[in-house]
Design brief:
CATH topology of the largest domain: Rossmann fold
Number of helices: 25
CATH class of the largest domain: Alpha Beta
Number of strands: 18
Strand order of the largest sheet: 2-3-4-1-6
Largest sheet: 5 strands, parallel
Number of domains: 4
Oligomer: single chain
Mean pLDDT: 86
Strand content: 15-25%
Distance between the termini: 44 Å
CATH architecture of the largest domain: 3-Layer(aba) Sandwich
Low-confidence stretches: none
Radius of gyration: 28 Å
């Protein structure tokens, strides 16, 4: 197992700590030059989680802050921004900075969320405790400051905290501060998930509106988040906002690793032989036309001896993907099946997310899956009416794993994988009786009668979901032409010495005994032979092919094979 030559910064999102402790650093300081070359009053960068948003804002903080300016200057020695020239380095240590991240302000009720905000804002003000004694502040200002520190601020006072802090810093230093707000939408996502979205949106609109809209005491602001919450809600009337999304050309290579950066990282650590496979697993993102790798996955891959795993994924981060699965009707199931096979789906471009619509509007859901990193735009175009559209697909093998895991969990719950492995082993080994036994257990223990209300759609979706366990050993295809018709499901072995499998499914209604399904199962098996569904498998050199006719009715199933 190869060991990296450099220490990988796993979970290190403090720029000062990263530089002083000599972690491997992918130099993104050119972003500072780009900002100084022409920033908007408010810039919002939206990217998936763990793409370096916090570290990027931390970098800006240590560059611009006038606190310990000379000490911080050493952090940028030899980096791109220093090489860019003295005209840029003159801006180093030039202004007060407000830096805050809301990624941990996430609770499961509005009352707890407000308490969390009070605690958070108290901690923020505590970072500027010297202002309470500043001669530039009036007695009323000092009283307000003390109220926030003591966590006694009313809702209206909390909404004024950021705007007031900008004014206090300006009055104290005579310079307008820079506001850096990381993960601004983390509380909003939690409020949507737990059911207090309207209250949270109103609070955030007032908190950010006061700080960002026509604030005479603010120099400029940079915000990061997973998504752009719709302008009609949180950013209404904010005309000085530049949104730099995954589709935007501006700052497209600032977050995530470019191909050149990944190549250098791998070469620096002596593991460049893994580049080709690394591309399949962690590349595939397209931000404003720039090819981007998932940085979290790349550094974890190198740190863990070049072992390919889905490092980016965890169950708490797949909320949006689960929303897709909750709404799997016939049309969505077909699209989902195609997505898992790396096909594309079409969506109208509308990046202003209104979270409640995600549960009602398939287009909003697909756009959200794009902004959160579960889909990428492979093509953008306009229709005849100049409306913007894009084609979306799964970016890489790591994200495909997320779909497979969530599909499986959605269908069978957690803990049922051992039974499914046993069932699929029996299927590929031609043990029809054992295959039927395990399939009956799946229907008995993991499926409700409500699920089987639309049998043809449900059973096909169930069988497709179960097949995610076969990925790697088999390529699973459905509804594909072969011979003189379209088979339901086929397993194409990666190694042609392994057996192939064809499944033909029949759904019957009103059957009350499993044995009465036998004629339907035999009819399905006969259809495989009559329409020569094995033709494509045979053409690919597969010599051993198991054929199964499967008949369902409610929770009853009968299976015949040969």
């Amino acid at each position: 197992m190869p060991r990296p030559k450099f220490t990988m910064p796993i979970g290190v999102d403090n720029f000062k700590a990263l530089r002083e402790k000599n972690y491997y650093f992918v130099d993104k300081t050119r972003f500072i030059k780009e900002l100084l070359g022409g920033h908007s009053a408010v810039t919002l960068l939206t990217r998936p989680r763990r793409f370096g948003k916090t570290l990027t804002l931390s970098m800006l903080r240590y560059f611009f802050t006038l606190e310990k300016a000379e000490e911080n200057r050493a952090l940028f020695a030899g980096l791109d921004i220093e090489k860019a020239g003295e005209e840029y380095m003159r801006e180093q240590g030039s202004r007060p900075v407000i830096f805050l991240t809301l990624k941990d302000v996430q609770q499961d009720s509005w009352a707890e969320e407000l308490n969390s905000f009070r605690l958070f804002l108290s901690g923020l003000y505590n970072s500027y405790l010297y202002l309470q004694e500043s001669a530039a502040l009036s007695p009323t200002d000092r009283d307000f400051f003390a109220t926030v520190l003591k966590r006694q601020a009313t809702l209206a006072e909390m909404e004024a905290t950021l705007a007031n802090l900008c004014r206090y810093l300006y009055q104290h230093y005579g310079k307008k501060p820079l506001l850096l707000l990381d993960e601004y939408d983390a509380p909003i996502i939690a409020s949507w998930e737990y059911g207090f979205y309207p209250e949270c949106i109103l609070f955030m609109k007032r908190l950010l509106g006061a700080a960002l809209k026509t604030n005479d005491y603010l120099d400029f602001a940079v915000l990061t988040g997973v998504s752009r919450v719709s302008k009609e809600s949180i950013f209404s009337d904010l005309n000085n906002l530049e949104v730099c999304s995954v589709l935007s050309l501006s700052y497209s290579d600032v977050l995530g690793f470019t191909t050149a950066e990944v190549t250098k990282l791998m070469e620096d650590n002596g593991v460049q032989d893994s580049l080709a496979e690394l591309k399949k697993w962690y590349d595939g993102y397209n931000f404003g036309g720039v090819e981007i790798y998932n940085p979290w996955s790349v550094i974890n891959f190198v740190k863990n001896g070049c072992t390919f795993k889905p490092y980016w994924l965890n169950t708490s981060g797949n909320v949006i993907l689960r929303e897709l699965l909750k709404r799997v009707d016939g049309e969505r199931r077909e699209e989902l099946t195609k997505l898992v096979e790396f096909a594309t789906v079409k969506a109208k471009v509308d990046e202003g997310v209104i979270y409640p619509e995600i549960r009602e509007n398939a287009n909003s859901l697909y756009m959200m899956l794009m902004t959160t990193g579960y889909l990428k735009a492979v093509k953008q175009y306009q229709d005849k009416r100049r409306r913007d559209w894009c084609l979306l697909k799964i970016p890489n093998l790591e994200v495909q794993t997320a779909y497979e895991q969530e599909i499986l969990t959605h269908l069978i719950g957690r803990g049922g994988e051992v039974m499914l492995y046993n069932m699929l082993d029996a299927m590929t080994e031609g043990r029809a009786e054992a295959f039927q036994k395990y399939l009956r257990r799946v229907l008995r223990d993991m499926v409700s009668y409500h699920d089987t209300g639309e049998p043809e759609i449900f059973y096909h979706g169930l069988m497709m979901g179960l097949t995610v366990l076969m990925e790697g050993d088999y390529r699973v295809k459905s509804n594909r032409e072969s011979g003189y018709g379209r088979f339901d499901i086929a397993f194409f072995p990666v190694n042609i010495a392994s057996p192939g499998v064809i499944l033909e499914l029949k759904a019957a209604k009103g059957i009350t005994a499993a044995e009465d399904l036998q004629p339907f199962a035999e009819e399905a098996l006969k259809q495989i032979d009559n329409k020569e569904y094995i033709a494509e498998l045979t053409e690919q050199g597969v010599k051993e092919i198991w054929r199964y006719g499967v008949a369902f009715s409610g929770k009853l199933v009968c299976l015949v094979g040969e």
